[in-house]
Amino acid sequence: MTTVFPPGPPRRYPGQQFLLFRRNPLRYIYDLTQRYGDVASFPSGDRTTVVLNHPDDICDVLVTHQRVFRKSPAFLRAKVVLGQGLLTSDGAFHLRQRRLIQPAFHRQRIMGYAQTMIDYAVRVRERWQPGAALELHHEMMALTLAIVAKTLFDADVENDADDIGSAMDVLVGAFDRLILPFADLINAVPTPRNRRFMRERDRLDALIYRIINERRQSGRDHGDLLSMLIMAQDDEDNGARMTDEQVRDEAMTLFLAGHETTANALTWTFYLLAQNPAVAERFYAELDRVLAGRIPTPEDYAQLPYTRMVLSEALRMYPPAWIVSRQASEPYTVRGYTLPANAVVLMSQFATHHDERWFPEPFRFDPERWTPAAQAQRPKFSFYPFGAGSRVCIGEQFAWMEGVLLLATLGQRWLLRLVPGHPIQLQPLVTLRPRYGIKMIAERRAPAHD
């Protein structure tokens, strides 16, 4: 079988395209899809990387032919942080772990988590002061961290939030080095940066192992994810239970994925509302009409369709998980190009979500794109903020409920305005963060029914 790579930019000197990619991967991938279309390629290190952008091809890789693909080598290096958690494990082990964890994310349980989400958001909104300058990303990170710790592990980490947040910043910041050639060797050198990385990882490990140890010693079933993990038996492995290390890996994965992505989504949503007063007016009007001045309840989730449309549009414009990578385990043909085994395939949510074929004026914030009629006119995989297939984010429904209820609870009391002159810049790490945070001024609202 002849290998035929898709078109891509010329290489004027070794490593040129990889260096350009490293400088701004988000912009590089987006520009590549704009210039070369639905399938393109670029040299990266000792291999050629292929970028797919058409919803049909994304569906084929993530769903229809997912058995042909596995996690890419760069992402597997994240095991240094996440171990063999759901994000990094593969094959039969991944399927077994997912089956053991899935019950914690069934709809009935998520509804049970909803009141905790609201309670923590109320505590935050009561703490804010009129006219106070907030670093909103920090605020949202602390809030979602507290929620995921309480709902999934029945642990109160609010007093440790700053320490955990700074440790998470170091770990997330290290992910961009994992795609470097010879990353394993680079990360093994005892540089100050690497030593700090190991120190912060060990700090989080100590916290998580302490929570696991306390739970094992108590012998109580708290009905949360941690109890499920500790008590779960794998019927395919002679009823074996998870080791502390396996429980740690899943807990670390959910600590990271369970608060980082939602915090980013909330931060970008409030930023977009501040930039678009007409949308904000409709958003606040829905809150006032539905809530009539009372604190939200879990049942309100289904009664806030416009709030969900606002969140959907924010996820389109600034998808927290902005790129997906896979590696072909055998030769694979796409649009007439035959890729060799081990070829790396990238699919960028940011690029696809900003494709004007599916989203006219793609850089305009417009929640009306999310009416049922508008959605029905687009290919399904033109929007995939949570991935797809057997590796779709296990916490997707948790994230939707948390996002809507937190927007409602905070937005009911507060209007957030951007601090003039503060720089807003995308930082595409493992998630899509605001590089310099987002500073906002809190203004108390007077809801119409209050």
Task: Give a structural overview.
- With 450 residues, the protein is α+β, with helices and mostly antiparallel strands.
- 51% of the residues lie in helices and 12% in strands.
- It has a domain at 1-82 and 323-364: Uridine Diphospho-n-acetylenolpyruvylglucosamine Reductase, domain 2.
- The chain has helices spanning 16-23, 25-36, 55-64, 73-76, 79-82, 91-101, 107-127, 136-153, 161-174, 183-188, 192-218, 225-231, 244-275, 277-291, 305-317, 349-353, 372-376, 396-413, and strands spanning 39-44, 47-52, 69-71, 133-135, 233-234, 240-241, 324-328, 332-334, 337-339, 344-347, 414-418, 426-428, 432-434, 439-444.
- Strand 8 and strand 9 (337-339) form a beta hairpin.
- The radius of gyration is 22 Å and the shape is globular.
- The mean pLDDT is 88.
Cα end-to-end separation: 70 Å
What proportion of the residues is helical, as a percent range? 40-55%
Q: Helix segment count?
A: 18
Decide which structural class fits the backbone: alpha+beta
- Please state how the strands of the largest beta sheet are arranged side by side: 1-2-10-7-3
Q: What percent strand? A: 5-15%
* Architecture (CATH level 2) name of the domain at 1-82 and 323-364: 2-Layer Sandwich
Q: Outline the biggest β-sheet.
A: 5 strands, mixed
Average pLDDT for all residues: 88
Give the tally of β-strands: 14
Gyration radius, to the nearest Å?
A: 22 Å
CATH domain class name of the domain at 1-82 and 323-364: Alpha Beta
Quick one: overall form? globular
The residue ranges in which pLDDT falls below 50 over 5 or more consecutive positions are: none
CATH topology of the domain at 1-82 and 323-364: Uridine Diphospho-n-acetylenolpyruvylglucosamine Reductase, domain 2
